[in-house]
Amino acid sequence: MKQLRARVRAIATLALCAVALAAHAQQNYPAKPVRIVVPYATGGGSDILARQIATGLQGLWGQGVAVENKAGASGNIGTQDVVRAAGDGYTLLLQNSTMSSNLGVYGKLPYDPAKDLTPIMVLGVTPIALAAHPSLNVSDVKGLAALAKSKPRTLSYGNCGIGTPQHFVMELVKQKTGVDATPVGYKGCSPAVTDVLGGQVPLAIVSANLLAPHAKSGKLKVLGVSSATRYSLLPDTPTFEEQGLKPFDFNIWYALMGPANLPPAVVSKIAADVGKVLQDPRVKENLATAGVEPLSGDAAALNKLIREDNQRYVDLAKSANIKE
């Protein structure tokens, strides 16, 4: 009995030490460099946000904060890298709504977002916009619907990849307008923009920020924007809702996450400090120029957003027959 009691006391002591060490580590977070994994190529909204946040956090923390782009498999490669990392706050993920659209396309993911990732915060949004080459001679979705009706099965549209949020938004436009257009998937939004500028495809649906300079120069006509309110970089372009496609509020969201079991104290620390970075006037200006609109939200808000978008993409995938 004495030996058993001694063993119990020893185990209890070790447990208390472990708790104390964990608490100490959280209080001193970060005690070493942190990496933010972006599961997409450089230059997109996720990458821009990650780099702004990393620069700001370095100043606050006095630690290195590196951004690693691990693109591939529609964001799954980089995300799985984070899923496999230790839940200590030193590996973070800057994900976007492509994660939810992937679920709609494939029916399941190689990881479970609810179990394998810790939500930290919502960061911002970028709407999606539909553009036409000037030779198409249309200026809004009503004109596009009339053209499609007069020339059935002749239109095509470029998107940022089959199963991306942009692809889903155009399929929703088609459902609400009756426009008949064949999707052409590209490896990213930029090639789709290049081809609609060159007239290789008459239409393209991409992240709205990429279209702003071409709309201003008159090289493209932007027919509509997916957000419920007008987009700051395209103030003269009506939303789809303004054109009668109601309800229609479909944005690309950006969010910060970590591996499973991230300590609550670390989550709170990261969220508070990232919030400070996003309030910096220079960061605000840079993000506004890049077309990323702020949308603040804590871990609970992010969880709700992911659940709702997961269901929305799954439902739309079924109704539009979007699959791999």
Indicate the topology.
Blueprint: H1 2-27, E1 34-38, H2 45-61, E2 65-69, H3 76-83, E3 91-96, H4 98-106, H5 113-116, E4 117-132, H6 141-150, E5 155-159, H7 165-177, E6 181-185, H8 189-198, E7 203-207, H9 212-217, E8 221-225, E9 251-259, H10 264-278, H11 281-290, E10 293-297, H12 299-320
Parallel strand pairs: 1-2, 1-3, 5-6, 5-7
Antiparallel strand pairs: 3-9, 4-7, 4-8, 4-9, 4-10
Characterization of the model:
Helices cover 46% and strands 20% of the residues. With 324 residues, the protein is α/β, with parallel strands linked by helices. It folds into two domains: 34-125 and 252-320, D-Maltodextrin-Binding Protein, domain 2 (3-Layer(aba) Sandwich), CATH 3.40.190; 127-225, Periplasmic binding protein-like II (D-Maltodextrin-Binding Protein, domain 2), CATH 3.40.190.10. The longest helix is centred in the first third of the chain and has 26 residues, at 2-27. It is globular and about 65 Å long. InterPro entries: BUG, Bug_dom1.
Sketch the major β-sheet: 10 strands, mixed
| Helix-strand topology string | HEHEHEHHEHEHEHEHEEHHEH
Rounded average pLDDT: 90
Q: List low-confidence stretches.
A: 14-25
Radius of gyration: 23 Å
Range of strand content = 15-25%
Structural class: alpha/beta
| Count of alpha/pi helices | 12
**Total beta strand runs:** 10
Task: State the distance separating the first and last CA atoms.
Answer: 63 Å
Q: Briefly note the CATH topology name of the largest domain.
A: D-Maltodextrin-Binding Protein, domain 2
**Percent in helix:** 40-55%
Broad shape: globular
The CATH superfamily of the largest domain appears as Bordetella uptake gene, domain 1
CATH-level-2 architecture of the largest domain: 3-Layer(aba) Sandwich
Number of domains: 2
Please identify the top-level CATH class of the largest domain: Alpha Beta
Protein name: Tripartite tricarboxylate transporter substrate binding protein
Organism: Ramlibacter aurantiacus
Signal peptide: 1-25
Family: Belongs to the UPF0065 (bug) family.
